[in-house]
Design goal:
Helix content is 19%, strand content 29%. It contains four helices and eleven strands; from the N terminus they run ββββαααββββαβββ. β7 and β8 form a beta hairpin.
Length: 214
C-alpha cells in the first residue's frame, strides 16, 4: 500500500488494471489488487456438475410434454420454480457420471392425491402394448374415483412416452387399462402412473412399476 501525495491524484478513486485508488481519512492510497488463483474443481464438484447437467437436460425434455403442467401445479403458491423442484426430486436417479441408473428414484409427478395402489404392469409383445392394473385405496372417497390416469412408459434405451388423460382414457375406478406403444419402440422396462384430479387441478405422486416382459 502506498500513499499518493501528488496533486493530480488527490481526487482520483477507482481501479486501473490491477491497481486500485481509494480514499481514507482524506488521503489517497494506492494498492495492488489481490491475485486470485483459479482452483481446479474437486472430483466431488465435477461429479455434482455432471449429475446436475444431466437432470437439467432431462427436465428440458420433460417440459416439452404434458408433464410440464404437473410440475407447474406442484409449485403454485410457493417460492420454488418447477425446474428446481424437478431437480430436487430427480437427482438421486442419476449417478456421478450423469447416467440414469436408478429408475426407482425417477419422478414424473408430485402432488397430494392418492397414488395407484398395487400397480402391476405387463408387456404384451404380440400386441405391442402394456397392460396396467391397480386397486383403489379404500380411503379414497367416491368423488375421487373419477380421477384420470396419466402414465409414462420408459424404454430400455431411456426414451419415454407420455400418455396424458385423454390418451389413457382411464379413471381411478377402472382398475385396468391397455396402452398401445408407438411403432418400432424399444422394449418397455418401467411404467410410472399417477392420477389427475378432474376439477381440482391436483395430481398424485407417481407410482413406479417394473414392466414384466416374460
Amino acid at each position: 500500500m502506498a500513499q499518493i501525495r501528488h496533486p493530480l491524484f488527490v481526487s482520483i478513486t477507482g481501479k486501473i488494471d490491477n491497481m486500485v485508488f481509494y480514499r481514507r481519512n482524506g488521503k489517497v492510497f494506492l494498492r495492488r489488487l489481490p491475485v486470485r488463483k483459479k482452483r481446479k474443481p474437486s472430483e466431488s464438484q465435477l461429479s455434482h456438475r455432471r449429475q446436475f447437467t444431466a437432470v437439467i437436460a432431462f427436465y428440458r425434455v420433460v417440459k416439452s410434454t404434458f408433464l410440464l403442467q404437473v410440475w407447474r401445479a406442484a409449485v403454485e403458491n410457493t417460492l420454488m420454480n418447477s425446474c428446481c423442484l424437478f431437480v430436487k426430486h430427480n437427482c438421486r436417479a442419476f449417478d456421478d457420471n450423469g447416467k440414469l441408473t436408478d429408475y426407482t428414484c425417477l419422478r414424473f409427478s408430485v402432488g397430494p392425491l392418492a397414488r395407484p395402489y398395487c400397480l402391476k404392469c405387463r408387456w404384451l409383445k404380440e400386441e405391442n402394448a402394456v397392460r396396467l392394473t391397480w386397486k383403489n385405496n379404500v380411503r379414497v372417497g367416491k368423488q375421487k374415483t373419477d380421477d384420470q390416469l396419466v402414465t409414462v412408459i420408459v424404454y430400455e434405451n431411456d426414451e419415454f412416452t407420455v400418455y396424458p388423460p385423454q390418451q389413457t382414457g382411464a379413471v381411478r375406478r377402472d382398475g385396468t387399462v391397455t396402452l398401445l406403444l408407438p411403432p418400432d419402440s424399444s422394449v418397455p422396462c418401467a411404467a410410472y402412473c399417477f392420477f389427475a384430479g378432474v376439477s381440482s387441478g391436483f395430481y398424485s405422486k407417481d407410482c413406479y412399476c417394473r414392466i414384466r416382459t416374460d
